[in-house]
Structures are given as structure tokens and as C-alpha cells.
Design a protein that fits this description.
115 residues, 3-stranded antiparallel β-sheet, 46% helix, transmembrane helix, TadE-like protein, TadE-like_dom, membrane, transmembrane
Length: 115
């Protein structure tokens, strides 16, 4: 009889475990988006030929794990480079997407080349 009670709890325990894994994925994607934004902004702030938006976009997209995709945009202003990275959060529940994309921004001053 006790084994039947435990068997009835297994789906609930599995659901709780999967929810914990999903929350961990959301946090990990947020960290990866922050890394991509910082890398893109830092690289784009460098003077030519090493810097620029194209180099920053490639560096930011390359900074995330291979199984994630980062999209870099440039809401630029003033003497600083601002990069925004967006990463889609994968779902552990097939066909159910409870979370949208995670976005992070980073701002870096342009590299001073006059010295």
C-alpha cells in the first residue's frame, strides 16, 4: 500500500524537478545574455581594424554557449557604445514555452585613439 502512495507522488516530484531545471535555464540564459552584451560592447568600442559593430556582433554571438543563440542590437548613444543581447530561453516542457527571451545591455566607452 505504501508503494502505491509513493508511486502517486512521482509525477508531482518530477514536475517540481523539471520546474527547478527550467528556472535554472532562465538564470543561465540571463548570464549568457549579459556575457554576450559585454563582449559585443567591449569589442565594438575598440578602434579599427579590431573593433566596430560587425566585429562586436560576431564577438558577442560567439561568447555564448554553442546550444544558445544570441542576437545583438545597437541602441548606441553619445561617446559610448551600448549593446543589447537577447537570448531565447529553451523549454524543458515539450511544446510549452512559459518564458520569453532574456535581454541584457552593456555600455562601454569608445576607445580613445588620440593619445
Amino acid at each position: 500500500m505504501a508503494s502505491l502512495e509513493y508511486l502517486g507522488m512521482v509525477p508531482f516530484l518530477l514536475l517540481i524537478a523539471l520546474a527547478g531545471i527550467q528556472l535554472g535555464l532562465v538564470a543561465y540564459c540571463g548570464e549568457q545574455a549579459g556575457t554576450a552584451a559585454r563582449t559585443a560592447a567591449r569589442t565594438a568600442a575598440l578602434p579599427a581594424p579590431d573593433g566596430g559593430k560587425a566585429a562586436g556582433k560576431a564577438a558577442g554571438e560567439g561568447a555564448v554557449s554553442d546550444w544558445l543563440t544570441a542576437h545583438i542590437t545597437w541602441p548606441e548613444y553619445g561617446d559610448a557604445i551600448k549593446a543589447e543581447a537577447t537570448v531565447e530561453v529553451p523549454s524543458v516542457f515539450p511544446g510549452v514555452h512559459l518564458f520569453g527571451d532574456v535581454s541584457r545591455t552593456a555600455t562601454m566607452p569608445r576607445e580613445d585613439t588620440t593619445r
